Amino acid sequence: MAYDAEVIVIGAGPAGCAAAIPLVQDGRDVLVLERKTTEDGEDITSGEVLAPQTQVECAQLGVALDAGWLLDRVTAVRNVYPDLSWTHHPFPEGLSYVQVDRGGFNAALRARLLAVGGRLSWGMRVAEVETCTAAAVVRTTNGNEYRAPLLIDAAGRHAPSLRSFDLKSADPEFSQIGVAVFFESFADAPLHTWDRHFYGAHGAMISGSRIRPGLYRYILETDLADKQATRLRPVEFYEAVAQQHDPWLYERIMREPRVGEVWAMAPIGYRVADVARDRLLLCGDAAGYLAPLTGQGIEFAMRMGRIAAETAKRAFARNDFSAAAFATYVADRADECGTAVGYLRHMLRHLRDRDALLRAARDDAMRAEIFGPIGGPPDARGSLTAQMDQRCS
Fold first, then answer.
1. Would the pTM count as exceeding 0.85?
2. Residue 284 included in any domain
């Protein structure tokens, strides 16, 4: 059978590039299909960050972290509890999260892909995916058909493989909505700090930080059912949650000048039945998603892309592209990402427990139980209520 490539990758984002680049470097003919027709330009709509491990993954791919798409560094978290008391926790020396212009970051990944010899086709919206004995087949909406021994679908939450094989389902435990609002300024927001306000009701929290000078983002995450029970638009619901739980934040949300468009997504989380099938690997958000709480979305995507590439190398060496041969991908993915996702699920459960959060405000052990290593003894603590009282007196 004639093939169009040895590996077809759907999606030229972090997961797709993380899979394609090492395969090209290994001598494989890799064709990456990207649904967009050109680079996005600046994209900060979801306020994404590069976690410390993401920065390691970039270095391994040869993507330098010294470009204009790198924005503010986040070097601490402030946890605000249901009574509006707070604790401040700096990260260990040398570790930081980095705010990014996602458009610039994606462009850097694609430039690296092309630099190592990968092939990238723009404007390829995939309509259907099929796997058969001899090949994986991809059909696009413009009538093109591509065949390869192996397909890696890294096309995100709307990946065509999810539709073709009916793999996607709701998360049975968490069904949440995210609503992000952007501001030109945000009075008293701590700089270089991830400001997280936890309310202990239906998993509701509002968190944010400065992305760069003149641009702040605060995002609400809470149960989708709460939104559906109202007739409010996403931004109105966002304001109502802040008004109900957090007068300090609500005052600023209503006062500070807003910029850009409100971003909303629901449901945030979902599960995927199979991440490995005959001649098919799913990685990144195509393999499932839970919540953005820990800022590790890009990290998980790039880790899975790297693991998919390692699995593909072994498959070519053995000329075996069966689901059974991909068992190592399932196991390695669970080993690298499963613990972190399990911890995220553990944290989401605690965020529904107001009493536990109030204990965490005072008890170092309880705080570490909920938030892990960055929830240990704080270097500062205070109260937003006291701050508001001082201003009024």
1. yes
2. yes
